[in-house]
Specification:
This protein has helices at residues 15-26, 75-84; strands at 5-12, 29-34, 40-45, 52-56, 65-71, 88-96, 100-106, 112-118. It is of the alpha+beta class. The protein starts with a strand and ends with a strand.
Length: 122
């Protein structure tokens, strides 16, 4: 795998306002998907190219931000390699339902990025 950007995700404190804004601005099609624990996740269909999602911030006090995801073949090995290269692991390797596995790191310069391994390698 060439380690391309595969997903972008908005973390916001006002999901309704964000959905309204981006749907009107870019014409994105949005679909809410139920998640474990009763929350929901909004999938973004951009009509071509890399899509994404939107969700309410999980950590109180976190400012709204966009998170980029890079596709990897083995998220566990990539997370270990990132740590060995000086990254801080913000969210350790975790399963995301039936979709795949992810982690979030902060690189040695302070920038945050996520890694994504889809189930079945797709």
């Amino acid at each position: 795998m060439g380690h391309a950007f595969v997903h972008v995700e908005l973390h916001t404190n006002d999901l309704t306002k964000a959905k309204d804004f981006y749907a009107k601005l870019f014409g994105w099609k949005l679909q809410d998907v139920p998640m474990p624990g009763g929350s929901s996740y909004t999938m973004i269909d951009v009509g071509g190219g890399t899509g994404g999602g939107m969700m309410t911030n999980q950590a109180p006090g976190t400012p709204p931000h966009w998170m980029a995801y890079v596709g990897v073949d083995d998220v566990r090995a990539s997370t270990k390699k990132a740590r060995d290269l000086g990254a801080k692991v913000v969210v350790d390797v975790m399963e995301v339902g039936e979709y795949g596995t992810m982690s979030v790191i902060t690189d040695p310069t302070g920038a945050t990025i996520a890694m994504w391994q889809p189930k079945g390698g797709k």
